[in-house]
Write a structure and sequence with these properties.
Elements (H helix, E strand, L loop, with lengths): L12 E5 L3 H12 L3 E6 L9 H7 L12 E3 L1 H10 L1 H9 L3 E3 L1 H4 L2 H4 L13 E4 L1 H14 L3 E5 L1 E11 L2 E11 L5 E4 L2 E4 L7 H7 L5 E6 L2 E10 L16 E2 L3 E7 L4 E9 L3 H7 L2 H9 L2 H7 L4 E3 L4 E3 L3 E6 L1 E2 L2 E2 L4 E3 L5 E2 L7 H18 L3 H38 L10 H19 L1 H11 L12 H12 L3 H7 L6 H18 L5
Parallel strand pairs: 1-2, 1-10, 2-6, 10-21
Antiparallel strand pairs: 3-5, 4-5, 7-8, 8-9, 11-18, 12-15, 12-16, 12-17, 13-14, 14-15, 18-22, 19-20
Helix pairs in contact: 1-7, 1-12, 2-7, 3-4, 3-12, 10-18, 12-13, 14-15, 14-16, 14-17
This protein binds flavin-adenine dinucleotide.
The site of flavin-adenine dinucleotide (FAD) has 37 residues, from helix 1, strand 2, strand 3, strand 7 and helix 12.
Length: about 500
């Protein structure tokens, strides 16, 4: 079915559109496999200096999520560490932190913890995205067969007919104020992110792309802070976790480097009053300070904000199919990362699925000779490896939408109407409890969280299943209870916000 080919027969000149995280991962992986890679990016390169210069000074308009916090899951940390250990060292030198399996253990399990083989592979890499991108970018630039051309806008795709298919032969580009020119390539990789235009251009030429698109119905807000001098990060407090779900809002803290951290809150689209409020930094603070798990970070005695609060809307789970009815969109063209598959950022999976996708692509072009086989096999492997992750994210989005709507309708705690949904909720609750009390369950859940296995694979372990069922049989209500975190209910929060707005209006002389 497929033919193994010698390296010398493989396409050598590869253009990658976009120097975002996936573009850089793809470029590095291809270069390591011996290709000559040119990455074309319309934004300028990172400014000179360290993480703060990059965070505050880099004009990164091409990646709208640039200033929202990012974490790399274990699947990504491991892929990078296995292939580029010196890159990982550079992340740490720039202040990135390693969150280990032991760090993530619930307090109930810490005392009796005995490391097991594989635990060392479950770790997260965390720092501001500006830091990640800067380190990544400088590392890629130093590779002898990677060239990054910044400030170059891709404005078209060069194609030729091949039977009833389209073959991609390069791209058209333009630097600001200069004449457009063409760049030829054996392969074009579209890592142009969520708004990449290559899809549109190919469809205009008659190519087919089928798209699934589901609105997650949330807006994701972020505000960055820095701990005050002499203040340490708060110790963990199981009663007041720094990540939680109050039904009408989900929140979390992303610890960064050098005392920096970010707080994110996610709010359902229809929560108009909350949206109006969190766009003001001081109301964002008031809201966070009313949640004990966040107040431990953002109280006035502990931290100062370093940015305004800002939102990211239009959050969708999107899957673009580049093979429709057995026919690829185009030959020698591959879309990776957000240009192909997008999940709700709340699950922190986008960069990880991006690097997985990049590695699938390199495997496929290494193993197959014919452009058609490459296109079909890339699609098959994408379906096989990324589809379960996409589907699990979409299922969680749908559950979250039902829950948010129920809370808005005053049903607190939200109680699903169908028996199936109630059972699923009870099972999830039982699983949450079991994973806090049994290391075997926790390990499995963490493998799923880190995309080290297909979602839910660990439930095939009979012991894990039996332990979970034990909690389920002890009472379905336990499920809902386990989800409750300490914090104001929705009505109370609205009144906290109203008071904070009143205070703000007085302080600012009714200017708002
Ligand atoms: C609010 C938010 C928080 C997130 N948090 C996390 C997280 O914690 N962990 C995680 O793993 N993922 C997270 N994600 C998802 C993650 O940001 C994306 O999945 C990931 O950045 C996708 O990378 P990419 O390289 O495919 O696209 P992008 O990062 O969007 O990069 C695309 C690049 O292509 C360039 N480009 C586009 N068009 C052209 C053109 N015509 N010419 C030249 N260049 C072009 C752009 O300038 C850009 O640099 C988050 C997303 C959001 C929105």
């Amino acid at each position: 079915m497929c033919s193994e080919v010698a390296n010398s027969d493989l396409p050598r000149r590869v253009i990658v559109v976009g120097a975002g995280i996936t573009g850089l991962c793809t470029g590095l992986a291809l270069a390591r496999a011996g290709r000559e890679v040119t990455i074309v990016e319309r934004d300028p390169p990172p400014p000179d200096g360290g993480p703060d210069e990059a965070f505050f000074g880099w004009n990164r308009r091409g990646a709208a999520q640039f200033r929202h916090p990012h974490a790399f899951l274990a699947v990504m940390s491991n892929l990078l560490e296995d292939s580029f250990p010196d890159l990982i060292d550079e992340f740490f030198e720039a202040g990135a932190r390693k969150v280990t399996f032991e760090d993530m253990l619930p307090d109930e399990l810490k005392q009796s913890y005995v490391p097991a083989p594989g635990d060392e592979r479950m770790w997260l890499l965390m720092c501001r995205r500006a830091t990640m991108e800067t380190v990544f970018r400088r590392y890629a630039e130093r590779q002898h067969n990677v060239e990054i051309q910044s400030g170059v806008n891709v404005i078209g795709v060069r194609t030729a007919p091949e039977g009833d298919l389209i073959r991609v032969e390069g791209i058209d580009v333009q630097r600001r104020g200069e004449a457009p020119f063409g760049m030829a390539a054996d392969l074009v990789v579209d890592a142009g992110g969520r708004n990449s235009k290559l899809k549109r251009w190919l469809m205009d030429l008659g190519a087919s792309i089928a798209t699934e698109d589901d609105d997650a119905e949330i807006v994701y807000y972020t505000r960055h802070y820095r701990l005050l001098p002499g203040v340490d990060e708060p110790a963990r407090d199981p009663g007041n976790p720094s990540t939680g779900d109050l039904g009408y809002v989900r929140y979390g803290v992303f610890p960064g480097e050098g005392g920096h951290f970010a707080v994110i809150v996610c709010i359902h689209d229809a929560e108009q009053a909350l949206h109006q409020a969190v766009r003001h930094g001081e109301i964002f603070d008031a809201m966070c300070r009313s949640i004990p798990g966040l107040n431990r970070w953002v109280s006035e005695q502990r931290a100062v904000a370093t940015t305004e609060s800002f939102g990211f809307s239009d959050i969708h789970a999107v899957w673009h199919h580049y093979v429709v009815d057995g026919k690829p969109t185009a030959l020698n063209y591959f879309a990776v990362g957000d240009a192909a598959v997008r999940t709700n950022p709340l699950y922190g999976r986008g960069c990880s699925t991006g690097i997985m996708h990049a590695h699938i692509l390199v495997d496929v072009i290494e193993a197959f000779e014919s452009p058609l086989q490459r296109a079909l096999e890339f699609d098959r492997r994408t379906e096989q490896e990324l589809r379960p992750i996409f589907k699990a994210s979409l299922d969680d989005d749908r559950k979250a939408i039902i829950r948010a709507k129920a809370v808005m309708a005053g049903e607190q705690p939200a109680r699903p109407k169908s028996i199936r949904a109630r059972l699923t909720g009870a099972f999830s609750g039982a699983l949450r409890i079991a994973s806090r009390r049994h290391i075997r369950v926790f390990r499995g859940a963490l493998r799923t969280f880190n995309l080290l296995e297909k979602p839910g694979e660990f439930m095939k372990d009979r012991v894990v299943l039996l332990l979970t069922l034990r909690y389920l049989l002890r009472g379905a209500g336990a499920g809902a209870a386990s989800r409750t975190v300490n914090g104001p209910g929705r009505e109370e929060m609205l009144s906290i916000i109203e008071k904070a707005l009143d205070r703000s209006r007085v302080e600012h002389g009714n200017q708002q």
